[in-house]
Amino acid sequence: MKNEQNNFDLPENKILHLFINNPYEGVFYIDENRIIRYINESVVKYNNLTREEIVGHSIDHKFKNLKFDVENIDRVIKTQTYEPLKYVKIDRTSFIASKSPVYRDEKFVGVFCRYISIDAKDVGRILNENWVDILSGFQMKDIMLNVSQTIMELNSYKDEFNKSNKALLGIENIIGNTPIMIELKKRILKVSQSPSTVLITGESGTGKELFAQAIHFHGDRSSHPFVKVNCAAIPENLLESELFGYEEGAFTGARKAGKMGKFELANQGTIFLDEIGDMPLIMQAKLLRVLQEKVIERLGSEKTIPVDVRVITATNKNLPALVEKGTFREDLYYRINVINLHAPPLRERKQDILKLANYFVLELNKNLNLSIVGITSKAQKLLVDYDWPGNIRELKNVLESAMNFSLGSMLDMDAFQYLHNLHSISKKSCDSQMLKTRLEETEKEQLISVLEKCDGNRKKAASLLNLSKSTLYRLMVKHDLL
């Protein structure tokens, strides 16, 4: 070690200066009274403010270009415990941040905060900076490689957030002017201002995810992540690590540095647990603890991580019946059902069918590169008279099928021939088995058509049908298409 120090031609205070003032990290010291006492050069340059404009002010001060994640800082001041690297979003900028309590003579005197922007376009160039070469005697290149890998991994999480948040839609994107939909939109706006848990019930294909997005979009968490989890699509043995993350070595094949779970990714935002009725009992108990204590434990760790997440759930199942049956926890049901919203089936809002149909025709024209201009009056009547057991999802799929086979610029009865056959059967006979058989045949025909269109590519077919890959696989097994 002595030889290494002899090769080192910079004084210790210069090394410390290089560490603290590296251009990729904002550093703050905030005292126990929430007053900013120190900032590094990166903070000054990044925010285009002078040191005098920042130092000496409270973190609540309204700076021109600077904001803090006040809740996280206050939590460290209150608990006087270290907060490890975590994702935070301040306004529109993403960071990884850590906060350390500072002590003097065993007395707590403040918080040391570090922020690394993960909006930097070329994190790897850090490795070529002169100051890293200078510090090579202390194996800093290895350390910076780890930092670079960590930031690149966090950038992949950021990409997921961006994709998710770009897709978010508000109530103006919820199509429907029937009384039941007008009332539902009012309720969505109302509950968006509340932190309480929400349970959205309704049949498959009724738009439950869109309603969840609207709640998040209009709430005060809208600038933070909206993370969706389909509880039915994730195998039971993977669900815990998917929700809560895992530590290095938690299981065979685990990432070396571990992985953040969906709850950590959704911190300060919203997590949407779709198909909650399919969650295994053992996971229901773990979810209940998160809702009660607002902490999670990664798989393979005993350390608790605080999370600030709004939870929205959805199901097409009868949860009270599952509670009675013993397959869904009663205490969890009451915990998630603080606010209940019901997504009405399409047959209860028939006046909205043509509005939805016209919207989908315009959307599908773009996706399919077609120029369908409308639907004939007879075909419109067919759409309105049909009961739509698959709801909005079925309507969209039926329209896409019709548009693919349409020979003209208008969708007529010929384009909806199989739907016309279904409607005729249901009108002429009350024989539910006959209708079920025809529906099964239609479902199989639709699967075959889409799989052929996608050249057997299941991923593309599932996306086209708006199904999960596991659901598509189940349907293919059901219809002997494997």
TrEMBL record:
GO terms assigned for molecular function: ATP binding; sequence-specific DNA binding
A Pfam family assignment: HTH_8
GO biological-process terms attached to the record: regulation of DNA-templated transcription
Transmembrane segments: none
NAD recorded as keyword: no
Domain PAS intervals: 12-58
Keywords: ATP-binding, DNA-binding, Nucleotide-binding, Transcription, Transcription regulation
Domain Sigma-54 factor interaction: 174-404
Keyword Transcription: yes
Protein name per the record: Transcriptional regulator containing PAS, AAA-type ATPase, and DNA-binding domains
Species whose genome carries this gene: Desulfosporosinus orientis (strain ATCC 19365 / DSM 765 / NCIMB 8382 / VKM B-1628 / Singapore I) (Desulfotomaculum orientis)
